[in-house]
Specification:
The chain contains eleven helices and 21 strands. It is an alpha+beta fold. It starts with a strand and ends with a helix. Keywords: Isomerase. GO terms for molecular function: isochorismate synthase activity.
């Protein structure tokens, strides 16, 4: 990959932009291979969610990622080039795709800014194989967006990625680029806030067979007593039906306002399915070869008063059952990182992560990333953690497939991005929902579905009724966002 810094605003000079495209085509001819021209430019501060509302189309791949307390958000719209697979070795194949694209990428512009340069947006399903025939997402989706807009501490950066081959019509590309850039500019000038669309009353809300869930918990506890398992995470879902399409941007705006301490995310398949959520769980974050991850397991409600909240926290910190569940996750992560040659470090005392409606046992873990280790190698090594699967992992996964009614799809799976320098941010897709933007059937008009997911960790001492109550508490996060 070649990098050419520019200080001037390339998108304000049509002739300069044309020259960069011509250079890209010349390179494509010389190498006899399509090239990516990637242009990064600072723009006036803008809310990426506003841009998503203004220019994204339902048939395009899209990605949204925000954590309000860090004052950071990024949106990716449409695909310059993408990779999808249903085959095994999906993480290795995804790495190969990223490497091959970067080997044929030319970067221009202000590449030293936060979130500048090419970023690859990634989603992986929880299970790699045996996906249902009607699965909304393949086992891996990686795409380099045509447009990427970020906001970090009141500084916004626009990145355009253009694929150029030997036969491309540069005039048409230039025309479309110029048109889209004007729309982005217009969204900055005309949209200072999210346009709210009133959501109509939901007409159906059902937890999928709660009695079967409690029965599954009881069966899992027998396996734990027989020492076949130490822990298993069982999920359930509710299907919410609406007479009108769910509004993606409204839901994301609701989530970021209600849960500024969580990662707000959305990714689409380009076929009118969006997977959204408010996840408290970071899988990995890498900045300048420094890795941070979290052991997050063991939970309790928040109290209605300061005293009640402190009481819940004290019970959580002193619960043998919850601390055992947390230790499974901590041991797993440190062992897996060590297997990759990393030296994980963490405090000896467990902390509390307090969210708006729930609190968790939390241990942040840090490590320096060795040269030659790709972020997706770490993602593969860590997925799935005991926080979303169980111990031992393979046995827990087999039992999850046996007990759970619905396919997990992207639920509890890695979702995030990798940039051209090896920086990345991946979360675990929990507290999430699959939103379908088309009618459920040809015979049932005006019926749109959102499937909301949540799970609970089952260890020795778990109680089926309490685990069901924990799931219902977690589901409220998404349900309130849809209303």
């Amino acid at each position: 990959m070649t990098v050419t810094p520019y200080r001037t605003n390339i998108f304000q000079d049509r002739q300069e932009l044309s020259q960069l495209l011509i250079k890209g085509k010349q390179q494509a001819i010389a190498k006899d291979c399509p090239q990516i021209v990637s242009i990064s430019q600072e723009i006036p501060p803008i809310d990426p969610l506003v841009v998503l509302q203004a220019i994204a189309k339902p048939h395009q791949l899209q990605f949204y990622f925000e954590k309000s307390v860090l004052d950071a958000a990024i949106v990716a719209i449409d695909s310059a080039i993408s990779f999808k697979t249903l085959e095994k070795n999906r993480f290795n194949r995804s790495q190969d795709f990223i490497h091959s694209v970067l080997a044929n990428t030319i970067c221009y512009g202000q590449v030293n800014l936060p979130f500048s340069g090419p970023h690859f947006f990634c989603s992986f399903t929880f299970f790699e194989d045996r996906l249902p025939l009607d699965a909304p997402f393949p086992s891996a989706t990686i795409f380099l967006p045509r447009w990427q807009i970020s906001s970090y501490k009141n500084q916004s950066v626009l990145v355009a990625n253009i694929e150029i081959n030997t036969q491309v019509n540069l005039e048409l590309i230039l025309k479309n680029l110029w048109h889209d850039f004007q729309l982005i500019n217009l969204s900055h000038r005309c949209f200072s806030r999210i346009d709210r669309i009133e959501q109509k009353k939901l007409i159906q809300q059902e937890l999928q067979n709660p009695e079967r869930f409690k029965s599954s918990v009881s069966s899992a506890l027998k396996l734990i007593k027989e020492n076949q398992l130490s822990k298993i995470v069982l999920a359930n879902a509710i299907d919410v039906i609406s007479p009108h399409p769910f509004n993606l941007v409204n839901s994301l705006d609701n989530l970021r306002q209600r849960h500024p301490d969580c990662y707000i995310f959305s990714t689409s398949n380009g076929k009118e399915h969006n997977f959204i959520g408010a996840s408290p769980e970071r899988l990995i974050s890498i900045r300048n070869h420094q890795l941070v991850t979290d052991a997050l397991a063991g939970s309790a409600p928040r109290g209605k008063t300061v005293a009640e909240d402190a009481d819940f926290a004290d019970r959580l910190l002193n619960s043998e059952k919850e601390r055992r569940e947390h230790q499974f996750v901590l041991d797993f992560i440190t062992q897996r990182l060590s297997q990759l040659g990393l030296i994980p470090q963490h405090l000896s005392t467990t902390q509390l992560l307090k969210l708006s409606n729930i609190q968790h046992l939390w241990t942040p873990i840090q490590a320096e990333l060795p040269i030659g280790v790709h972020p997706l190698e770490i993602v593969e090594k860590l997925h799935p953690t005991p926080a979303v699967a169980g111990v031992p992992t393979k046995i827990a996964q087999a039992q999850i497939r046996h007990y759970e009614i619905c396919d997990r799809s992207l639920y509890a799976a890695p979702i995030g991005w990798v940039d051209y320098q090896g920086n990345c941010e991946f979360i675990v897709g929990i507290r999430s929902a699959l939103i379908e933007c088309h009618n459920l059937s040809q015979t049932r008009t005006n019926a749109y579905r959102a499937r909301l997911y949540a799970g609970a960790g089952i260890v020795a001492g778990s109680d089926p009724n309490k685990e069901l109550a924990e799931i219902q508490l977690k589901l409220q996060v998404l349900l309130k966002a849809l209303l």
